[in-house]
Fold these 2 entries.
Entry 1:
Amino acid sequence: MFSKKMVLIVGGVVLITVNVILLSVTSKSQSTSAFGRVGLSFVAPFQEFVTRSVRFTREIWEHYFFLVAVSHENRELKKSLNDAIEKNTQWNELKLANNRLRDLLSFQKSLTHRVIAAEVIGKDPSVWFKTVIIDKGKADGLQKGLPVVLPQGITGQVIEASERYSKVMLIIDRNSAVDALVQRSRARGIIKGASADQCRFEFVLRKNDVQVGDTVVASGFDGVYPKGLRIGQVSDLSERSSDIFYEITVTPFVDFEKLEEVLVILHPETEALASEQ
Amino acid sequence: MRYCFYIGTCLLLMIVQTTVLSHSNAIGGIYDLLIPFVIFLSISLPVRESLPFILALGFVVDNLSGSPFGLYLTFYFWLFVGMRWIIKYLRAGNKLFLSLAVVVAVLMENILIMGTFAFLGPDGQLPEEAVKNIVSQIVWALFTGPLFLLGFLTLSKRFNIQLNGAGAAPKP
């Protein structure tokens, strides 16, 4: 009655229709059958195991590469950090040098004499003698006897000059002597080196007025240091009953432990300073 | 080549002493590092080789220092003479010799410097910090002097072996 082809078509349509109807019905209901739950309970552990294993393997794999990358990045960052620290140190050094040189420059402007800046490149090999080597010599116009100063005060004098380097005896050396005055009372004496950070102020008559805290300046009478340059401050004062002179200790304004750059006065004249420091 | 080693070591010690150590407050009054080197030269080189070298060394140090010219020249020369005399009786590698040589030499150098202060100085007085500095130098010399000497002897031996083959080290 019906051809086989017709039966197949009708059967297919019916099947699709039933399927659609069933789907429509089941899609409205979230409840699962007991069979479905059993299936879930049976399969899920395997799923979980396999999934976790895969995930674990993937994480290890990814972490390994991640760690390699992190390690590489860490190395790069450390290198960058070291570079930055080094640059920062250099920058700080430059900043400090800049400040010192600015001080020297402003001090240089206050002097009426021609000066040349020099860098301290070495110190005396012996602890007993206080000399330094500077990087300027005869080629730069230096010669024996020229005064060496800093904005803080007198530093020393050139005692030997080669073509490119010079030796400077600091005022704290035992062989150094500077004719000096107490700025306030004009009491005169000789500043001599005593120890690493102090000088003695000798031959100051007791009839003069000297007090602890007084500033001592160069008198200019020695023909080496220009008059008025600061030397130091009276830090100790004593009188011996039998002596006609004071025993005075002067602490220099210059910190000789931190000597890095100095100014050498090329043509010292017996002129006063252009401006008071 | 051997002389390059001696000159290089000498230069290194001199530079370290006048730059690095002189800027370090923590080191304090360290002794003249060239003393162990002069002792080493005196005991390990023949006279004709070591004496000119030591005199040149003294001349250079005198130029670098603010000391009366000739002080280091004099001291290094007499240190050399003293060491040559001592090694007639003691073996150069003797532990007692190594321990005391630098200390005694440091003490002698300081006595010589104090002598110049007392007799040639402007006021004939010794520095206030004299005792402190000398004690500090002797303590440093006691602990580091033998190490320096041993170091120089070992380095020199290895250097000579490398250059000339085993057993070619110079004999005084």
Note: DSSP finds six helices and no strands in chain B.
Entry 2:
Amino acid sequence: MSDRQRVVITGLGQVSALGSSLDALLPQLLAGKAPFSVIEGLDAPGLERPIGAMIPDWDSRDWMPAGSLKTTWLVTHFAYAAAVQAFESAGLDRTDRPRGGIFLGTGFGGQGASEETYRSCFTTPGRRPRPTAIPNAMANASASFLATELRLTGPNLTLVAACASATHAIGQAFRLLRSGEVDVMLAGGCEAPLTPITMAAWNAMRVLAPAGADPTQACRPFDASRSGLVVGEGAGVLVLETFEHAQRRGAHIYAELLGYGASADAGHITRPNIEGVTACMDLALQDAAVEPERIGYLNAHGTGTPINDRTEADAIRRVFSEHSARLMVSSTKAVFGHTMGASGGLEAIATILSLNEGHFPPTANLQTIDAEFPEIAFIKGEARSEDVELAMSSSFGFGGNNAAIVVRNG
Amino acid sequence: MSQDTIQRVSRIIADYREIPIETVEPESRLVEDLGLDSLGYLEIVFEIEEEFQVRVLEEDAFEFTTIGAVCEGVDALVRSSEQASVDKPAP
């Protein structure tokens, strides 16, 4: 144990429905107002009035290096925008070339690029796939592009674990840093799922919240009237670094990463089970050597689907027992949307900024906590202000992939 | 090489590289001046095939080093394609 490296978080970067900067993020999270709207012009078969959490005023040209737009797809643009911000906030530049690499999570990678290729080829006689069809669509395209641009030549992996992808990426990067094999890792996730077939396919699973009269009210995690999730796009990327390395270069430390837990339901492809969900949180606490009572805030997975939230609430009670009545819990998916493979990155950033400022976001649209849930101190209505040392962020994905991390205020 | 071909090929390169079309000249070298890599080269060949409705053979695909050489190659392919269509016996 003693020769393990301490791991700290020294950089944060994000693009999401809450904008493309770090500064504006926490105030919006604390305000608890969902920015969801109907996706105009999205022709998703079988889905009337699709709603989503879109990045406002997004233009890839604002971020991407000249000449790179044609050889990359949108998900890589999101990842790069977040990574550049994270790199800059860590005080790194691409001439530093630290000993390190990139672990990036994504659920679908460039699936939307494939959709475009299939549509083009199947609907236009004689039309062929472009030479960039594969480089744009392959799952590891974003991590590869980031390595090339930021000159990180260490381990470069893409972790695909559905909606837990980014939390696993952060956790696995944490372990690599802790081993001392690397000094710096970029870790997080990216997703661009607001494409016609991906959205239609989610709709086929009947997990999407209906648009209703007001799309901003559609996603209501932990509420008795919750009716599903709202899909969002974006990326959340963090710079993880050994404490020693960060200290040596005088980097600002946002938080320390203390523990990571990973588990598989080994059950059903889509239906979560309480054992798997509980296990990842237990393991993260054990890894951090922290008693459950010491956690002050939990950024929950909280999708807003009836079954996720029910399973999660029971799991929270099982992990934290009596402490859950005092544990502040919220889901920021009610404002980010469910950004799938990016969600763990964005939510880790939300958790860290909340810890830093001592202000914790409410779950937007949570009015009446489901009476079936055990007693948990869900934050609803107004944000809560408290000095908190330790927090957890959890993510559960289709496939029964579960991950949780424990962080300490920096 | 025809002015029309130069114009259309230059437009393809300029769009791909996100540069002003004025910076693309017949003497411009694809790699050294225009920064095309192997994947970019394949994309340009693809676009040219679509634009001019020709097929560049595998063995010719990496032969062209300047915009001028590309345009001459395209003109030759277009001519042979037109000739083939003239030579085709009437049904």
Note: The mean pLDDT of chain B is 89.
